[in-house]
Input
Amino acid sequence: MLEGKLVSVIGAKRSGIAAAVLLRDRGAAVFVSDSAPIAAEERELLRNIGAFYEEGGHSEKVLDADFAVVSPGIPPTAPVIQRLEHEGMTIHSEIELASWVCPARIVGVTGTDGKTTTALLIAAICGYDGAAKGYHAFSAGNIGVPFSSVVGKMTQSDTAVVELSSYQLERCDTFHPEVAVITNIMPDHLDRYGGSLQRYSEVKYRIFGNQRPNDWLVYNFDNATLRERFSGGGRGLPGLFPFSTDAERIAANSERYATVEDEGVVTVLDGRKERVIGFEDLFKRRFRGRHNLENVLAAAAAARVLRIGAPSAYKALGNFAGVEHRQELVGTIGGVDWINDSKATNLNALKHALQSVPERVLLIAGGRAKGEDFRDITGEVRGRVSTLVVFGESMETIAEALSPVVSVERAGSLKEAVLFCRNAAAKGDTVLFSPGCSSFDMFENFEERGKAFKDLIREFV
Output
């Protein structure tokens, strides 16, 4: 399929480099092009695998290819992408590329929030099941591990659990998961989709566009957008497996589902109910909140349609301690809890974080906003947040939206925000770093931002 092809790879970050390596391994000639300087380590790797590259701009050379692979961070409006499209070049995502050569069964996970936690839970469940049955589970995609970097290690017996952002799905044309999971659809990345929730939703729905009737689509029945989309089923859809925290409502609307019953998680399929895990074995201090219960239900539903027994799901769910940068308890110092929720890159994630912590919160928020209205979290902020510390590009926007209901402090940097909270927090308080914005005004990604927050705590607190 790839032998002898000429391929332009646009972007030399993690996914672009992984795509270049995969292409070279499969016999393609590769030209990597990046508008920014390429790191020395990546340049050496490209030379070692025999790939050509350019940096600091895109030349006409990118047009000399059979097709192009684009990194997810490069928007459709970028001049290089528009030029490729104008010239009739076919453009694929790195996810699409890896799926062409993936021998394993694929579980795809998308949604606005909760997809990382859900994907990790599913991978953990598959891992426990695989240990007993002789296969391996791989986590890849938006989780930080390019799909292309691990697909070569897989066999037909394995399972690839691939987390998918809307950016990655934009260029997926044949991607076909055996099980697709949509955690929820909420306003996010509207700046990229012209302010349209419908356009954003349609990109997310590409996850099941190539599924067949014998495949499965797990979705959140409590999410109004998804409930309306899949109400009554429809022609061309795979098998639908909803999950809901409302047992009575979901049972009245579906014969197969995951829900909450008798203080625990249950699944129903083929007329048979299975109890997966009780709340007493599930909830720990690092893993709390309604949204995490929804993530557990999604994972339990995926496990059920994958025909994985409840014992494996029980072990994985009971031992899960949470995700780094997602409501991560960094430490309790002087009676103050410090929580790193850097992965909260949109307003809905920030709302979930506020709903999951006790009152007396000092909230640090800010970064590059995505066109959302911060007045929408007024209810969660009022009476719960004692002080809001804002920083970054959207500082004034957030301050203006929420100053009527909370005391606002402005910080010139994340460091200043942490120092303020160190001096202002008292025993029993919680300092919650939940930006509600992307990191790109100050940091490479949310991981770098979260690490910076944790480093500052260790240094100053």
In short: The CA atoms of residues 42 and 48 lie 10 Å apart. The chain has three domains: 6-89, 96-319, 328-460. The chain has a mean pLDDT of 92.
